[in-house]
Structure formats: C-alpha cells, structure tokens
Amino acid sequence: MAMLDSKVPEGSIENKWTDYKNHINLVNPANKRHIDIIVVGTGLAGGAAAATLAELGYNVKAFAYQDSPRRAHSIAAQGGINAAKNYQGDGDSTYRLFYDTVKGGDYRSREANVYRLAEVSANIIDQCVAQGVPFARDYGGLLDNRSFGGVLVSRTFYAKGQTGQQLLLGCYSAMNRQIARGKIEMFNRHEMLDVVKIDGKARGIIARDLITGEIERHSAHAVVIATGGYGNVYFLSTNAMGSNATAAWKIHKKGAFFANPCFTQIHPTCIPRSGDYQSKLTLMSESLRNDGRIWVPAKIEDAKAIQQNKLKPTQIAEEDRDYFLERRYPAFGNLVPRDVASRAAKERCDAGFGVNATGEAVYLDFANAIERYGKIEAKVHNITNASKEKIYALGKAIVEEKYGNLFQMYEKIVDQNPYETPMMIYPATHYTMGGIWVDYNLMTTVDGLYCIGEANFSDHGANRLGASALMQGLADGYFILPYTIGDYLSNDIRTGKIPTDTKEFDEVEKEVKDRIDFFINNKGTKTVDYFHKKLGKVMWDKVGMARNAKGLTEAMAEIKAIREEFWKDVKVPGSANEMNPELEKAGRVADFLELGELFAKDALVREESCGGHFREESAETDGPQKGEAKRNDADFAFVSAWEYKGEPADAVLHKEELEFKDIELKQRSYK
C-alpha cells in the first residue's frame, strides 16, 4: 500500500505551526495580483477563505449554488463556536481544547492538525467581534460562554440560537468588501461539476450556470473545495436539501483520496420523524442540553400509555422518570458527546421506552431549569416567598432569553409549547467527520487542489464535539489556508494566466455534457427522489447508528443494485438549457449512490467501534464500560484513505498511521 505523506512539521506540538509559518515560502504582494484562486462553496470555510485570500491580494473566483453566499448551510448552525480563551476562569487552555477534541473524536484524528485548530481558535473570536458578530455577553459586558457536550469547561461562544447565521453574516460582509473592490468575482447559482487537471495539477473547474444551463470553463492556479459534508446520503438528515457531495466526489474520482467515509455523526437532539412525506429533519441545538434534562419513563407501562396518547409526560412523577444519561454517565450527565448520547437514546427506544407514537423519541425537559432560574431571579430581585407562578414567570424569561428562537421553532413544527411540556427529540444524521483526505497544508493528494471545512476529514476523528464545526471552518478559511496555499503558489508567480482552450478542458467539459445529455434523454419511469429515498433507507437501516458485518455486506449489494436501476430507469423532466432542479438532483444522487457503497465498504473494513462508527461485534461485554464502544488500537489506529478505481467495491485502501505522542491513547470514559 502506498504511504500517505501528511507533511506534519517536525518539532514539539506547541511549536509546529509557528515554526512552519516561519519557514514557508511567501508570495510577494505585487505578485499576488497575478495569481488566480477558485473557491468552491461560500459557507463559513469557503467564505472566510475567499475573503482572506482576496484581502491578501489574490484574484478569487467564488462559486455558490445558492442565490447568495449568505444562504450557505452554515447559516443553520445554532449553538455556538468553541475557542480556548478561558473567559470563565474554569481551567480551559489550548491544550485542554486539543485534548477534548482528540478524546471526543475517539483518538482517530491527527494530533498536529487538532493542536493547530485549538491554537488558532482564540483568533477566530477576535476576528468575528471585529466584524461585528453580536456574541452574547454577560452582566459585565464581557463575552459569555456556555458548555457543550464532551467537555468539563465553558468555552462555547454563542449568539442566542443563531450563531451560524451571525458568523456567516460577518463572513459575508468581509466577502462583500472584496467583491466591491473587484478582488472576488462572485458566481452565484453556479455548480461545479468537475475539476480540470493539467500536468497533474488542479488548474480549473467546469461549472454549470443553474439559471441558463450554460456550461462554463474557469481556470486558476489553485482550486479550493469548501462544499460541506455528505449527510444527505441518508436522504433524511438535518442538512439542507441542497447540501450535496458532488464537488468532493468529483475530485475523488480525479485522484483525491476519500478518507474515513464511515465516520458520520448522528446528532441526539433532533425533532423526531413524523411521517414518510418528510424531506429533511430539524435540529434542536446541543446548547439545549445545558439546561434540558433527557429522560424516558422508568416503567414500560407508562411508556406504552404515552405512545397511545393515554398519558402526558407531565403526569409522570419524578421518581418514575429515568434520566438515563445522568444515570449512566454521572461525570458528564446530559453533556456527554453526541455519539454517546445518541446510542443511549436508541438503546432506550429499542427497549420499548420511546415516547411518541412511533416509539422513536425521548424527552428533553426544561421544567427543572425554569424553576432553578426562577428561584435565582427571585433572590436577585429580592422577592421573598415568591409564588410558584412568579418563579415560573421569572425562570421562563431567562430560558426564553437563552433559547427563545429554538423553542419558537419547535412549537411551530410540533405544535406543542416546550415551556409547558417536554420537547421530544431523537437522533438524526447531522455531520460527516469523514471527507477528502488532506495533509497538514490542507492539500489533497492532487497538487494545487485544497479542501477545507466539513468537506475534508482532518480534525474531528470519529466524532465531532458540538460547536467545533464552526471553529474548524473559520480556522481553515481565515487562519490556515491563506498561509499554506501561499507556500504552494510561490512556484506559480511566473506561470501566467491558465488558458481554458486546451485539450484538458475540452475532455472534462465533454464528460460533463455527456452526463447531462444522458439524464435529459433517458426514458426512465422513476423520479430522482424515488432512488434517493431507497438509498436513504438502506443507509439508515444498515449503515446507521449501529452496524454489523452482515448488514454492511447486504448494504453494499443493495446500494449497487439501486445504482444500476437508477442508471436504467431514472426520469429527469425538462431540458438542460434552463433552470432545472431535477437535473441538479439527478447528478447529486448519482454521486451519493457511489459514495454510499464506499461508505458501507469503509464501515465493513473497520472492525472496531469508535466514535460515531459503532460495530455491534465490537462492544465492551463486562465491567463498568459494558455496552460501550470498544476500539481496536492495535489494528485500526489509522486513517482510511480510499483511492478511486472505478466501482466503489474496487476502491483501494491506503492507511495513514496515527501517532499519539502528546496524548495517551486510551479508552474513552464519560462515566
């Protein structure tokens, strides 16, 4: 097997990034104006990269399939962004953020990248405050923090329940400054359909104007992919329906290795599925687990009565409630990492204790928080002998201030008032830790082709801690890529403009057009969504929260059969030379149908449980950890990097062995 070169600098971990920056090659400011960079995707990672690279003087072409960068899916992030500033004085530090992230990822991430992420995290907050991001503040006017799962400190900065939106608006304002200056050329409603390589280097892309259908050629000295994750391979997920894997999958087929596709995150705090008609699921922020207590009835007869709508949760006495996370994980309680909380909820529901009509829900209850905050506020306002009603009103006001928009969203969707009755939640596909393999420079296995944010694999191992996605996206875009890409581009100052009238562009454009022509002209009988839903069901049933060898083997065969049927019987209405959402979906689902099989293959090969990847054959069988995930560090302490060879079943595995020099490799425990 080929060795992967991660290009991690030598030296102590706390000095690697500083020493790296001290010795890389730079591009003279006068030369940057002669270098072009393409950035595909304008969420937090891509938007931050485009704005920063343009500010440095490069010519940037930015591509978004939405009608505006501010519609990127980063806008949906709710709870917050991590940074090791220790504003709470509770013992946080760069090392502790580094440690928590590696441990939270179940020791399947690259140490050097994670330490760098923790190191630059504090800079992100300063950058965003300077942009005017309205972070929450405490009574003294300082930036406030709250806790998230998997940690014992408060390091999460937030803007109510709309942190992603506010960060994206800050990023978008930085982009707009450069668009106005002509340093960013913005291509809204454009989708990248393939990458173009010349002499082994990424030198451009083929894109489709989604309004006119026109196929366009765009050249550059380097290409940056920042198009998010592939959670929609499950069909039902918390991702926006437009979120897709096409850009990442296309570069994979052109030589970029795909790493750890089976590492996906099931988020524990989502509104449960209510029927087969749904096209997506809605996330309730993990920040709610700061104050909400998760429980199910302790008695099976109470659970059955609730499922049959014969009993209300408020009628169940405190002693008849099972606060199962607090019971199983006393040290972390409701703030265990997402993979742990999700599996625990599934276990209770599988045992028959679920609390909605389908039996697939648990409660997230704020009654205790409202009472606790109410009593504190009564004391603050010197109200003696406050009535229950007064305490409730005071406490509700505090909860509303912290989480009001989330409660409002829940009530609109479920038609229940979460102040008066517990929320119902259930795990759902959310984030993908796997993605395109990149080295320390964030470059893929293709020269000049970079991948940042959720689209790459680099920082979160087998499980991402809450509030770390925004941290990684902005770290990559604002503070890491602008350094590393300059080292590469320093060799291109004499290259000149990359022409697009070459055989390489001709060949890739023909591939793109042939594929579009096939979809438009195929005389099938079934819709794109028909196949996407079939794929999603296989993925959730056999490659979901729990996996086993039998199910994964079956999944690979079933996905291949769905893919073969898709290419024979898919029907795409309309034409290629117009705005055609069904044509867009067809290309994206075709890619999911290949990615899904590789996903299952990766899960089958990894015969261990770690983070979001839970193999039923690999669980602790006795002792205090009974039932918990059991890693196999002797055989699987590596990154799986898959090389494209045609059929997903034929993909070749390359291993990046993981070294743990600064953190002891040991089984996770949140007990």
Automatic annotation (TrEMBL):
InterPro entries: FAD-dep_OxRdtase_2_FAD-bd, FAD/NAD-bd_sf, Fum_R/Succ_DH_flav-like_C_sf, Fum_Rdtase/Succ_DH_flav-like_C, SdhA/FrdA/AprA, Succ_DH/Fum_Rdt_flav_su, Succ_DH/fumarate_Rdtase_cat_sf. Keywords: Flavoprotein, Oxidoreductase. Residues 36-470 form the FAD-dependent oxidoreductase 2 FAD-binding domain. Its cofactor is FAD. Transmembrane segments: none annotated. Residues 532-670 form the Fumarate reductase/succinate dehydrogenase flavoprotein-like C-terminal domain. The keyword Oxidoreductase applies. This is Fumarate reductase/succinate dehydrogenase flavoprotein subunit. It comes from Mariniflexile ostreae.
